[in-house]
Specification:
This protein has two domains: 172 residues, Rossmann fold, CATH 3.40.50; 177 residues, 3-Layer(aba) Sandwich (Rossmann fold). Helix 6 packs across helix 10 and helix 9 packs across helix 11. By secondary structure, it is α/β, with parallel strands linked by helices. The strands form two sheets. The protein has a six-stranded parallel sheet with strand order 3-2-1-4-5-6, sandwiched between helices. The chain is 38% helix and 16% strand. It holds the Pfam family Glyco_trans_1_4. This is Glycosyltransferase family 4 protein.
Length: 361
């Protein structure tokens, strides 16, 4: 890729330190290191803590808890610009958030001509695009976001979906637990999918379905997660779902997926979160049918998932999946095949390798 014998250095620019995790946005950034072994990636880590055992190299970044507050974002701009001078390429993995328009206008002059590749996991609000400037060639995760970026002046925007390693997410047989477990994922934000999942589960339960609902719901920095989780428990009880559990962060996602039968992911708005959720891909790789909301950003998953325009419809799909083992098996096989064919390392690597070659030439 480079003219000399030295391996190219690529700075992964993210809004938070990657060793404290930033959910799926951070996971997307870190998946680049093993997929691109011919370059040396480096990234921010939290304070002076030891770097996690990821491929590549980390750079300390002060942060109390990893939350992308104003001090952390200012560090990204200042320290990132300084580190960019030691890199051959900057690969920004940043959603279009409320602070992005100002960042995009102020940061580029500090780079002294270093090439930048920008992967956009998601867009908080399409109105932000009109005030934003491209950092460089831009990549989207879905055609919907690619078209929105292109219409806002970001040029031709290729689509490269996220990647998971199928070998790390083994296909599991259907759980034999009784009652079966329905796992709901989402967020506490309005329209984030948590209350929609409770509504869908209540529809299925009132129609006679037997299951236990487990809600794995993430909070954003600054949210009072304890109160939000208690509110979810209260709503579930009001809907007659008395055996429901509410989890925060999940330490053993493979284990949780292994004992689950079906996954619900029903957000009505993404709020800047990735167009293709990693948790959904992992569920499909494990062989767990997924019922999702009908957001246009989810279209890359095509018929690997069931999509419902409203929670009421999702509830009826849940009832049918629980009652029809043959349909469950068909969707489980289709989901695994889709991950292997469309979201495995080969397609991910080839897409980014071509972009890296062009920018490092």
């Amino acid at each position: 890729m480079a003219a000399d014998a030295r391996r190219p250095r690529v700075l992964l620019l993210t809004s938070v330190p990657l060793d404290v995790g930033d959910g799926e946005e951070g996971e997307l950034a870190l998946s680049l290191a093993p997929a691109m072994p011919e370059v040396d990636h480096f990234w921010f880590r939290r304070g002076r803590e030891p770097a996690a055992a990821w491929r590549g190299r980390s750079v300390p970044k002060v942060s109390r808890n990893g939350a992308p507050g104003l001090p952390e974002r200012l560090q990204v701009a200042a320290v990132g610009a300084r580190l960019a001078r030691r890199a051959d390429l900057v690969h920004a993995v940043l959603s279009i958030s409320p602070g992005f328009p100002a960042f995009s206008r102020l940061w580029l002059p500090l780079l002294h001509g270093r090439p930048v590749l920008h992967t956009v996991p998601g867009v908080w609000d399409p109105a932000l695009l009109a005030r934003s400037r491209p950092l460089g060639p831009t990549v989207a995760l879905s055609e919907v976001t690619a078209r929105a970026l292109g219409a806002a002046g970001f040029g031709k925007v290729p689509v490269i979906g996220p990647m998971i390693e199928p070998a790390e997410w083994q296909l599991r047989p259907r759980s034999v637990r009784d009652p079966p477990i329905v796992l709901a994922t989402g967020h506490h934000d309005p329209g984030g999918g948590a209350y929609e999942a409770i509504g869908a589960a209540a529809v299925a339960a009132r129609a006679g379905a037997r299951f236990q609902l487990i809600l794995a719901v993430q909070g954003r920095p600054g949210q009072h997660v304890g109160r939000l989780e208690q509110a979810l428990r209260s709503r579930a009880a009001q809907e007659g779902l008395h055996a429901s559990e509410v989890l925060g962060s999940v330490e053993d996602l493979p284990g949780l997926l292994a004992v689950s039968d079906i996954v619900l992911h029903l957000p009505q708005t993404l709020g800047g979160r990735p167009d293709v959720p990693f948790t959904v891909l992992k569920a499909l790789a494990t062989g767990r049918p997924v019922i999702m909301s009908d957001l246009p950003q989810f279209s890359p998953l095509k018929d690997a998932v069931l999509r419902a325009p409203v929670p009421h419809r999702a509830g009826h799909l849940l009832l049918q999946l629980l009652d029809r083992p043959w349909w469950w098996e068909k969707l489980a096989e289709r989901g695994r095949a889709t991950v292997e064919e469309r979201f495995g390392p080969a397609r991910f690597r080839s897409g980014y390798a071509a972009l890296y070659r062009n920018l490092l030439a």
